[in-house]
Amino acid sequence: MFRWAACVTVVLLAAGAQAAPPPAEVFFREPDIVDARLSPSGRWLAITGTLGAERAGLVVFDVINGGQPRRVVQFEDGDVTNVHWVNDGRLVFSAVDFSQGSGRGRGAGGLFAVNADGTKRLQLVRRLNTRTVRDPATGGLLDWNHRLLSTLRSRDGVGSEEVLVGRVTVNDERTLTPLWLNTLTGRTRSADFKVPAGTVDLLTDPRGEARVAVARRDDRISAAWRAPGSEDWQPLFEAALGQAPFTPFGVDSAGTLYVTQSRGQDGQRVLARYDFTRRAPEEQPLVVTPGFDFTGQLMTLNDGQLRGVRVVTEAETTVWLTDAMKALQEQVDGLLPGRVNRVTCRQCDRPEMVVLVHSYSDREPGEWWVHRGPLDGGKGWRKVGRAREAVKAEDMAAMAFQRITARDGRDLPVWVTRSPAAKGPLPAVVLVHGGPWSRGNIWGWHAQAQFLASLGYVVIEPEFRGSTGYGEAHMKAGFRQWGQAMQDDVADALRWAQKQGLASDKACIAGASYGGYSTLMGLVRDPALYRCGVAWLAVTDLELLVNGSFWVDDDAHLMRRYRMSELVADGKADAGMILANSPVLQAARLKAPLLLAFGEEDRRVPLAHGKRLREALQAAGNEPQWVTYPGEGHGLAVLKNEVDFAERMAAFLAQHLAPAGSAQAR
């Protein structure tokens, strides 16, 4: 599993038709490698993932001195996640249970610490909703409501033994109290700074110093700034929820504050420095991504100075600000062409430089490579491993990004995933993302779309209005448009794909959460367009959603309390709209075959949504295929449930679409 390759070798294989698609488990099982992180000096590489075991563990490799990778943490009843370096020899991490259903939640995985050689492991924060991951008695553990805010980096970039944690208290309003936590002893001390009343989050600089405090009270949000060398907090803004003039994004070691802000006619977010003299973001932005909201990461080295910006448009790229890092990126891209190559380095300006590359594409789920010393062409690179060893990249589908025009002239981004070996139109699955106020996709390998493409379908994924990531105007165009213009965008994407010869006239629609709602409304509004629908965790009753009589608050409760009438509908004033666009009230128009699946412990979309629709469909004479999963919440988390549902979906789609050349079609 941990054999190192002597050098980079890129082999291009001709894509050919598969005799049979891989089993569903290949797509949905936990990754072999989730992440890999270099220590501050670059000596150690921490790797998380299953790595050949049943559960995700933590493996550490000595990059400088070589030797075999050491499995330093492996629980029998928990999975390691959220690994961070505290200093050059110590790490912190959380432990969740991937084998339990999502209905129990994974939000409080506790906090543990361990040395790079596996010694001095210590549990620091208790876990919530768990069974028995426990170390020997360690004294007074912090309760589960303490969360990691930042690791502390000293001026030399090596770090200390402390991390910054926040104790979250929920009374009428959520508040956060910062504490310094010693990862060797478990002792805490009060933070050497105070935070404004109502603080719910902190933004720290690369040295772990709190610089921005975000506070929330009722339907108001505010931010305050603490300058280097100062104990005082200065207000940055106060606004209604969803109407902040800008968003604090990051701080470098020089005390420069970087913010994102919506600008221009389309309201696309840009990255800019904050001008403390003008008390506003600088007029000249630092990064503009035309057609997309700025999304990314500030790239700083050990000294905390800004050296580049990682940017996401349709795909991820890194814009380096120094000649040395530009040259390094160019060399890596030349060795691994046609991929996103995420470069991280330590001691970047020294002969003993250590470079880590996370390389992935739409067909390759991900590889990690490491190199020490001056780059010498393609020599000296060692392959750490792959995200999914069982996935054959040459058998995977290709993913393309398109911008089309919706029926009312609005720009409509669309993703298309299909086998590069396919010829002519294919039966289509229109896969609608959840949210709906989220971005559906970014270029890369995605399990659901790849699974469907492996069955012989072309997968169409529209970024319908209401989706984020494409400008404020695109997102706001979806306000109060459930089942209306948002639904038209979904249909327009399929019709476009059919006109382009990508999709045949055989199509089904599918999705989860809002995507499940859109599936149902697609069958209501465009019955001639779709032969079937697959909806899971689906909103079916807009009245139930808007009025919330059955809703149990989860992390979306603020949206419900303050913005539901603005985003979806007003329960009283919009009764007619709710009637026309609520699947449960339009069940008599749902004639197509339908597969429904729900989590029995779902709090965001309670099982009542599914039961009401099922009863309405039965009354209308259209019995759906129906499955519920005990212990699951708003998302399937147990592998056997994911595989079971994927296999049910595959059989259901084959029954109604039967890809050309398949056994079903013959």
What keyword list fits this structure?
8-stranded mixed sheet; 4-stranded antiparallel sheet; disordered N terminus
Can you list the strand order of the major beta sheet? 28-29-31-30-32-33-34-35
Report the mean per-residue pLDDT as an integer: 89
- Report how far the terminal alpha carbons are from each other: 41 Å
For the CA atoms, what is the radius of gyration? 25 Å
Q: Which word captures the global form?
A: globular
Number of DSSP helical runs: 11
Q: Give the amount of beta strand, in percent.
A: 25-35%
Measured as a percent range, the helix fraction is 10-25%
Major sheet: 8 strands, mixed
By DSSP, the count of extended strands is 35
Low-confidence stretches: 1-18, 131-138, 549-556
Task: Give an account of the 3D structure.
By secondary structure, this protein is an alpha+beta fold. Helices cover 17% and strands 33% of the residues. The chain is built from 11 helices and 35 strands. An 8-stranded mixed sheet has the order 28-29-31-30-32-33-34-35, with helices on both faces. The chain is globular and about 70 Å long. The protein starts with 23 loop residues before the first helix and ends in a 10-residue tail after the last helix. Residues 1-18, 131-138 and 549-556 have low confidence and may be disordered.
